[in-house]
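Need Gfo/Idh/MocA family oxidoreductase's 3D structure for a figure. Predict it.
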Amino acid sequence: MSKKLKVALVGLGNIGKTHVNYLPKMNTVELVAVCDVVKEKAEQYAAICGTAAFTDFREMFDHAKPEAVIIAVPHYDHPTIAIEAFERGIHVLCEKPISVHVNDAARMIEAHEQAKLTYPKLTFGLMFQERTYPHYRKIKDILDGGELGRLTRVTWINTTMFRSQTYYDSGDWRATWAGEGGGILVNQCPHTLDMYQWLFGVPVKISAHAHIGKYHDIEVEDEVTAYFEHENGMVGHLIVTTAESPGTNRFEIVGENGKLVYEDGKLMFYRNRSSMLSFIKETKNSFGRVENWPTNIPVSSDTNGAHPIVAEKFVNAILQETGDLIAHGREGINSVIIANGIMLSSFKQAVLAVPFDADEYEAKLQELIQTSKYVKKTAANSQGQEDMSASFGR
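Structure prediction for Gfo/Idh/MocA family oxidoreductase:
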Protein backbone atom coordinates (compact mmCIF):
# COMPACT_ATOMS: atom_id res chain seq x y z
CA MET A 1 0.00 0.00 0.00
CA SER A 2 1.42 3.38 -0.99
CA LYS A 3 2.23 5.95 1.65
CA LYS A 4 -0.44 8.49 2.52
CA LEU A 5 0.22 12.07 3.59
CA LYS A 6 -1.23 12.98 6.97
CA VAL A 7 -3.21 16.15 6.32
CA ALA A 8 -5.13 18.45 8.66
CA LEU A 9 -7.72 21.04 7.63
CA VAL A 10 -8.10 24.31 9.54
CA GLY A 11 -11.28 26.26 8.89
CA LEU A 12 -14.68 24.74 8.14
CA GLY A 13 -16.56 27.66 6.67
CA ASN A 14 -17.84 27.72 3.10
CA ILE A 15 -14.45 27.13 1.47
CA GLY A 16 -13.46 24.60 4.13
CA LYS A 17 -16.50 22.56 3.16
CA THR A 18 -15.17 22.46 -0.41
CA HIS A 19 -12.00 20.79 0.84
CA VAL A 20 -13.95 18.37 3.04
CA ASN A 21 -15.82 17.20 -0.04
CA TYR A 22 -12.73 15.87 -1.83
CA LEU A 23 -9.98 15.23 0.74
CA PRO A 24 -11.40 11.94 2.12
CA LYS A 25 -11.64 10.64 -1.47
CA MET A 26 -7.93 11.15 -2.21
CA ASN A 27 -6.07 7.83 -2.00
CA THR A 28 -2.83 9.65 -1.20
CA VAL A 29 -4.25 11.53 1.80
CA GLU A 30 -5.13 10.57 5.35
CA LEU A 31 -7.24 13.34 6.87
CA VAL A 32 -6.03 13.15 10.45
CA ALA A 33 -7.89 16.16 11.85
CA VAL A 34 -10.24 19.04 11.18
CA CYS A 35 -10.26 22.27 13.16
CA ASP A 36 -12.67 25.16 13.62
CA VAL A 37 -13.25 27.64 16.42
CA VAL A 38 -16.91 26.57 16.43
CA LYS A 39 -16.84 23.29 18.34
CA GLU A 40 -20.11 21.96 16.92
CA LYS A 41 -18.90 22.51 13.37
CA ALA A 42 -15.57 20.79 14.03
CA GLU A 43 -17.32 17.80 15.59
CA GLN A 44 -19.89 17.62 12.78
CA TYR A 45 -17.29 17.41 10.03
CA ALA A 46 -14.98 15.20 12.03
CA ALA A 47 -17.84 12.70 12.30
CA ILE A 48 -18.53 12.94 8.56
CA CYS A 49 -14.87 12.38 7.70
CA GLY A 50 -14.12 9.85 10.43
CA THR A 51 -11.35 11.94 11.91
CA ALA A 52 -10.47 13.98 15.01
CA ALA A 53 -12.00 17.36 15.86
CA PHE A 54 -10.17 20.34 17.34
CA THR A 55 -11.01 23.96 18.11
CA ASP A 56 -7.39 25.12 18.51
CA PHE A 57 -4.91 24.62 15.67
CA ARG A 58 -1.89 24.44 17.98
CA GLU A 59 -3.52 21.68 20.01
CA MET A 60 -4.28 19.95 16.72
CA PHE A 61 -0.63 20.22 15.65
CA ASP A 62 0.46 18.78 19.01
CA HIS A 63 -1.93 15.83 19.13
CA ALA A 64 -2.85 14.94 15.54
CA LYS A 65 0.73 15.30 14.28
CA PRO A 66 -0.15 16.24 10.68
CA GLU A 67 2.55 16.30 8.04
CA ALA A 68 0.68 18.98 6.09
CA VAL A 69 -2.08 21.48 6.75
CA ILE A 70 -4.62 23.17 4.51
CA ILE A 71 -5.46 26.65 5.77
CA ALA A 72 -9.01 27.79 4.98
CA VAL A 73 -9.69 30.38 7.70
CA PRO A 74 -10.38 34.14 7.43
CA HIS A 75 -7.47 35.97 5.80
CA TYR A 76 -5.90 37.65 8.81
CA ASP A 77 -5.22 34.25 10.39
CA HIS A 78 -3.33 32.83 7.41
CA PRO A 79 0.11 34.12 8.56
CA THR A 80 -0.30 33.00 12.18
CA ILE A 81 -1.21 29.42 11.30
CA ALA A 82 1.25 29.11 8.42
CA ILE A 83 4.22 30.42 10.41
CA GLU A 84 3.43 28.10 13.32
CA ALA A 85 3.24 25.19 10.89
CA PHE A 86 6.56 26.07 9.25
CA GLU A 87 8.29 26.22 12.62
CA ARG A 88 7.09 22.67 13.28
CA GLY A 89 8.16 21.39 9.85
CA ILE A 90 4.57 21.06 8.63
CA HIS A 91 3.90 21.59 4.92
CA VAL A 92 1.35 24.31 4.10
CA LEU A 93 -1.29 24.68 1.41
CA CYS A 94 -2.92 28.06 1.98
CA GLU A 95 -6.17 29.43 0.61
CA LYS A 96 -6.21 32.76 -1.20
CA PRO A 97 -5.13 35.40 -0.53
CA ILE A 98 -1.83 34.58 1.14
CA SER A 99 -2.46 37.54 3.47
CA VAL A 100 -4.31 40.83 3.79
CA HIS A 101 -1.27 43.06 3.38
CA VAL A 102 2.22 42.89 1.92
CA ASN A 103 4.09 42.87 5.24
CA ASP A 104 2.29 39.73 6.42
CA ALA A 105 2.94 38.02 3.07
CA ALA A 106 6.62 38.84 3.39
CA ARG A 107 6.63 37.44 6.94
CA MET A 108 5.13 34.16 5.73
CA ILE A 109 7.62 33.79 2.89
CA GLU A 110 10.55 34.61 5.19
CA ALA A 111 9.28 32.12 7.80
CA HIS A 112 9.16 29.42 5.14
CA GLU A 113 12.69 30.20 3.96
CA GLN A 114 14.01 30.13 7.54
CA ALA A 115 12.22 26.86 8.32
CA LYS A 116 13.75 25.26 5.21
CA LEU A 117 17.17 25.61 6.85
CA THR A 118 15.95 22.95 9.30
CA TYR A 119 13.45 21.19 7.03
CA PRO A 120 14.92 21.49 3.50
CA LYS A 121 11.98 19.72 1.81
CA LEU A 122 9.31 21.89 3.45
CA THR A 123 6.61 22.73 0.87
CA PHE A 124 4.52 25.92 0.69
CA GLY A 125 1.70 25.99 -1.84
CA LEU A 126 -1.26 28.25 -2.58
CA MET A 127 -4.79 27.35 -3.61
CA PHE A 128 -4.89 29.33 -6.86
CA GLN A 129 -7.03 26.74 -8.59
CA GLU A 130 -8.02 29.02 -11.48
CA ARG A 131 -4.53 28.48 -12.89
CA THR A 132 -5.75 24.99 -13.81
CA TYR A 133 -8.67 26.27 -15.92
CA PRO A 134 -8.21 25.29 -19.59
CA HIS A 135 -8.87 28.74 -21.06
CA TYR A 136 -6.38 30.49 -18.80
CA ARG A 137 -3.76 27.81 -19.40
CA LYS A 138 -4.23 28.21 -23.15
CA ILE A 139 -3.84 31.98 -22.86
CA LYS A 140 -0.61 31.52 -20.90
CA ASP A 141 0.64 29.01 -23.46
CA ILE A 142 0.05 31.50 -26.29
CA LEU A 143 1.72 34.35 -24.38
CA ASP A 144 4.70 32.22 -23.32
CA GLY A 145 5.10 31.14 -26.94
CA GLY A 146 5.45 34.78 -27.98
CA GLU A 147 2.72 34.55 -30.60
CA LEU A 148 1.34 37.98 -29.71
CA GLY A 149 4.78 39.57 -29.81
CA ARG A 150 5.22 42.72 -27.74
CA LEU A 151 2.15 43.27 -25.55
CA THR A 152 0.59 46.74 -25.58
CA ARG A 153 -2.70 46.56 -23.69
CA VAL A 154 -4.67 44.33 -21.36
CA THR A 155 -8.27 45.11 -20.42
CA TRP A 156 -10.12 42.84 -18.01
CA ILE A 157 -13.73 43.53 -17.13
CA ASN A 158 -14.74 40.93 -14.56
CA THR A 159 -18.07 41.80 -12.99
CA THR A 160 -19.33 38.23 -12.54
CA MET A 161 -18.73 38.24 -8.77
CA PHE A 162 -22.20 39.44 -7.80
CA ARG A 163 -22.93 39.31 -4.08
CA SER A 164 -26.13 40.18 -2.26
CA GLN A 165 -26.45 41.94 1.08
CA THR A 166 -27.40 38.55 2.54
CA TYR A 167 -23.97 37.26 1.56
CA TYR A 168 -22.23 40.10 3.36
CA ASP A 169 -24.45 39.60 6.40
CA SER A 170 -23.59 35.89 6.51
CA GLY A 171 -20.61 36.30 8.83
CA ASP A 172 -19.56 38.87 11.41
CA TRP A 173 -16.05 39.00 9.90
CA ARG A 174 -17.12 39.61 6.32
CA ALA A 175 -16.62 42.97 4.60
CA THR A 176 -15.03 44.69 7.59
CA TRP A 177 -11.57 46.19 7.94
CA ALA A 178 -10.97 44.32 11.20
CA GLY A 179 -12.43 40.98 10.11
CA GLU A 180 -11.51 40.69 6.45
CA GLY A 181 -9.17 43.58 5.70
CA GLY A 182 -11.04 44.69 2.61
CA GLY A 183 -13.78 43.79 0.19
CA ILE A 184 -13.74 42.56 -3.38
CA LEU A 185 -9.95 42.78 -3.71
CA VAL A 186 -9.20 40.44 -0.78
CA ASN A 187 -12.18 38.14 -1.13
CA GLN A 188 -13.49 37.74 -4.68
CA CYS A 189 -10.56 39.11 -6.71
CA PRO A 190 -7.42 37.31 -5.50
CA HIS A 191 -7.77 34.78 -8.34
CA THR A 192 -8.20 37.57 -10.88
CA LEU A 193 -5.20 39.46 -9.48
CA ASP A 194 -3.12 36.28 -9.37
CA MET A 195 -4.03 35.49 -12.97
CA TYR A 196 -3.06 39.01 -14.00
CA GLN A 197 0.38 38.81 -12.37
CA TRP A 198 0.87 35.21 -13.55
CA LEU A 199 0.38 36.30 -17.14
CA PHE A 200 1.86 39.82 -17.14
CA GLY A 201 3.83 40.40 -13.94
CA VAL A 202 3.39 43.18 -11.39
CA PRO A 203 2.87 46.70 -12.78
CA VAL A 204 5.29 49.50 -11.96
CA LYS A 205 2.55 52.14 -11.62
CA ILE A 206 -1.00 51.91 -10.30
CA SER A 207 -3.77 54.47 -10.52
CA ALA A 208 -7.09 53.36 -9.08
CA HIS A 209 -10.51 54.27 -7.75
CA ALA A 210 -12.01 52.00 -5.11
CA HIS A 211 -15.56 52.79 -4.03
CA ILE A 212 -16.42 51.97 -0.43
CA GLY A 213 -19.85 50.45 0.20
CA LYS A 214 -21.26 51.99 -2.97
CA TYR A 215 -23.96 49.35 -3.46
CA HIS A 216 -23.91 47.37 -0.21
CA ASP A 217 -24.11 48.21 3.48
CA ILE A 218 -20.41 47.45 4.08
CA GLU A 219 -17.37 49.50 5.09
CA VAL A 220 -15.03 48.13 2.41
CA GLU A 221 -14.75 48.34 -1.39
CA ASP A 222 -17.38 46.78 -3.65
CA GLU A 223 -16.38 48.45 -6.93
CA VAL A 224 -12.88 49.06 -8.33
CA THR A 225 -11.50 50.57 -11.52
CA ALA A 226 -7.71 50.42 -11.88
CA TYR A 227 -5.14 51.47 -14.47
CA PHE A 228 -1.70 49.83 -14.60
CA GLU A 229 1.55 50.65 -16.35
CA HIS A 230 4.22 48.00 -16.89
CA GLU A 231 7.95 48.30 -17.33
CA ASN A 232 7.73 47.21 -20.98
CA GLY A 233 5.21 49.95 -21.77
CA MET A 234 2.13 47.73 -21.67
CA VAL A 235 -0.93 49.26 -19.99
CA GLY A 236 -3.61 47.37 -18.13
CA HIS A 237 -7.17 48.06 -17.04
CA LEU A 238 -9.11 46.20 -14.38
CA ILE A 239 -12.82 46.74 -13.72
CA VAL A 240 -14.46 44.66 -10.98
CA THR A 241 -17.54 44.88 -8.79
CA THR A 242 -19.81 42.69 -6.68
CA ALA A 243 -22.89 44.69 -7.72
CA GLU A 244 -23.48 43.94 -11.38
CA SER A 245 -25.95 41.41 -12.73
CA PRO A 246 -25.78 40.13 -15.36
CA GLY A 247 -22.03 40.36 -15.08
CA THR A 248 -19.33 40.34 -17.71
CA ASN A 249 -16.04 38.47 -17.92
CA ARG A 250 -14.26 39.94 -20.94
CA PHE A 251 -10.49 39.62 -21.15
CA GLU A 252 -8.70 41.42 -23.99
CA ILE A 253 -4.96 41.01 -24.53
CA VAL A 254 -3.46 43.09 -27.35
CA GLY A 255 -0.02 42.59 -28.83
CA GLU A 256 1.75 43.67 -31.97
CA ASN A 257 0.78 40.42 -33.70
CA GLY A 258 -2.91 40.47 -32.85
CA LYS A 259 -5.46 40.26 -30.07
CA LEU A 260 -6.77 37.54 -27.75
CA VAL A 261 -10.33 37.88 -26.45
CA TYR A 262 -11.82 35.57 -23.86
CA GLU A 263 -15.56 36.00 -23.21
CA ASP A 264 -18.59 33.76 -22.70
CA GLY A 265 -16.39 30.68 -22.56
CA LYS A 266 -14.85 31.34 -25.98
CA LEU A 267 -11.26 32.25 -26.79
CA MET A 268 -10.69 34.16 -30.04
CA PHE A 269 -7.30 34.98 -31.56
CA TYR A 270 -7.35 37.82 -34.09
CA ARG A 271 -4.01 37.13 -35.70
CA ASN A 272 -2.30 39.97 -37.57
CA ARG A 273 -0.62 39.22 -40.88
CA SER A 274 2.27 41.45 -39.83
CA SER A 275 3.33 43.41 -36.75
CA MET A 276 1.07 46.39 -36.15
CA LEU A 277 4.03 48.26 -34.61
CA SER A 278 6.05 47.77 -37.78
CA PHE A 279 3.01 48.58 -39.91
CA ILE A 280 2.56 51.91 -38.08
CA LYS A 281 6.04 52.99 -39.19
CA GLU A 282 6.18 51.44 -42.63
CA THR A 283 2.78 51.80 -44.29
CA LYS A 284 2.18 54.55 -46.84
CA ASN A 285 -1.58 54.28 -46.34
CA SER A 286 -2.94 56.91 -43.94
CA PHE A 287 -6.01 54.89 -42.98
CA GLY A 288 -4.86 51.34 -43.64
CA ARG A 289 -5.17 48.57 -41.10
CA VAL A 290 -3.23 45.39 -40.62
CA GLU A 291 -4.96 42.43 -42.19
CA ASN A 292 -5.98 39.88 -39.57
CA TRP A 293 -7.64 36.49 -39.41
CA PRO A 294 -10.05 35.64 -36.58
CA THR A 295 -9.48 32.16 -35.19
CA ASN A 296 -11.58 30.36 -32.62
CA ILE A 297 -9.13 28.65 -30.25
CA PRO A 298 -10.74 25.41 -29.01
CA VAL A 299 -10.54 25.00 -25.23
CA SER A 300 -12.47 22.91 -22.77
CA SER A 301 -15.03 24.70 -20.63
CA ASP A 302 -14.66 22.18 -17.80
CA THR A 303 -13.47 23.89 -14.62
CA ASN A 304 -14.67 21.21 -12.22
CA GLY A 305 -12.22 19.44 -9.94
CA ALA A 306 -9.80 22.35 -9.81
CA HIS A 307 -9.29 22.26 -6.03
CA PRO A 308 -8.41 18.55 -6.01
CA ILE A 309 -5.92 19.14 -8.85
CA VAL A 310 -4.06 21.75 -6.78
CA ALA A 311 -4.15 19.50 -3.71
CA GLU A 312 -2.96 16.49 -5.68
CA LYS A 313 0.01 18.42 -7.07
CA PHE A 314 0.83 19.57 -3.53
CA VAL A 315 0.62 16.05 -2.08
CA ASN A 316 2.65 14.47 -4.90
CA ALA A 317 5.37 17.10 -4.57
CA ILE A 318 5.75 16.04 -0.94
CA LEU A 319 5.34 12.27 -1.18
CA GLN A 320 7.08 11.65 -4.49
CA GLU A 321 9.35 14.70 -4.51
CA THR A 322 8.44 15.08 -8.18
CA GLY A 323 6.36 17.50 -10.19
CA ASP A 324 5.71 21.14 -9.55
CA LEU A 325 3.07 23.01 -7.56
CA ILE A 326 0.28 24.88 -9.28
CA ALA A 327 1.31 27.96 -7.28
CA HIS A 328 4.27 28.37 -4.93
CA GLY A 329 3.88 30.28 -1.68
CA ARG A 330 6.42 32.91 -2.70
CA GLU A 331 4.20 33.90 -5.64
CA GLY A 332 1.31 34.91 -3.36
CA ILE A 333 2.80 38.27 -2.48
CA ASN A 334 2.38 39.57 -6.04
CA SER A 335 -1.42 39.66 -6.03
CA VAL A 336 -1.34 41.26 -2.56
CA ILE A 337 1.01 43.96 -3.88
CA ILE A 338 -1.49 44.77 -6.63
CA ALA A 339 -4.48 44.73 -4.24
CA ASN A 340 -2.76 46.92 -1.63
CA GLY A 341 -1.45 49.22 -4.37
CA ILE A 342 -4.95 49.73 -5.77
CA MET A 343 -6.34 50.66 -2.37
CA LEU A 344 -3.42 52.92 -1.43
CA SER A 345 -3.65 54.72 -4.77
CA SER A 346 -7.37 55.25 -4.19
CA PHE A 347 -6.91 56.43 -0.62
CA LYS A 348 -4.20 58.90 -1.67
CA GLN A 349 -5.95 59.82 -4.95
CA ALA A 350 -2.59 59.57 -6.64
CA VAL A 351 -0.58 57.50 -9.09
CA LEU A 352 1.39 54.98 -7.03
CA ALA A 353 4.86 53.76 -7.95
CA VAL A 354 5.54 50.07 -7.29
CA PRO A 355 7.14 48.96 -5.05
CA PHE A 356 5.47 51.26 -2.54
CA ASP A 357 5.85 51.65 1.22
CA ALA A 358 4.19 48.54 2.67
CA ASP A 359 4.34 50.07 6.14
CA GLU A 360 2.23 52.99 4.91
CA TYR A 361 -0.51 50.67 3.73
CA GLU A 362 -0.46 48.59 6.91
CA ALA A 363 -0.67 51.81 8.97
CA LYS A 364 -3.64 52.98 6.89
CA LEU A 365 -5.35 49.62 7.43
CA GLN A 366 -4.83 49.87 11.20
CA GLU A 367 -6.22 53.43 11.14
CA LEU A 368 -9.34 52.20 9.34
CA ILE A 369 -9.77 49.46 11.94
CA GLN A 370 -9.29 51.77 14.90
CA THR A 371 -11.54 54.56 13.63
CA SER A 372 -14.32 52.32 12.28
CA LYS A 373 -17.80 53.27 13.43
CA TYR A 374 -19.44 50.62 11.29
CA VAL A 375 -21.98 48.39 13.06
CA LYS A 376 -22.06 44.93 11.52
CA LYS A 377 -25.47 43.43 10.88
CA THR A 378 -25.36 39.65 10.89
CA ALA A 379 -28.33 37.68 9.65
CA ALA A 380 -29.91 34.91 11.66
CA ASN A 381 -28.45 31.48 10.88
CA SER A 382 -25.65 33.32 9.10
CA GLN A 383 -23.05 30.73 9.98
CA GLY A 384 -24.72 28.04 7.88
CA GLN A 385 -22.96 26.38 4.98
CA GLU A 386 -23.63 27.44 1.40
CA ASP A 387 -22.79 25.78 -1.89
CA MET A 388 -19.60 27.49 -3.06
CA SER A 389 -19.67 25.97 -6.54
CA ALA A 390 -21.52 28.99 -7.94
CA SER A 391 -18.53 31.16 -7.13
CA PHE A 392 -16.06 28.96 -9.06
CA GLY A 393 -15.31 28.86 -12.77
CA ARG A 394 -16.31 32.39 -13.61
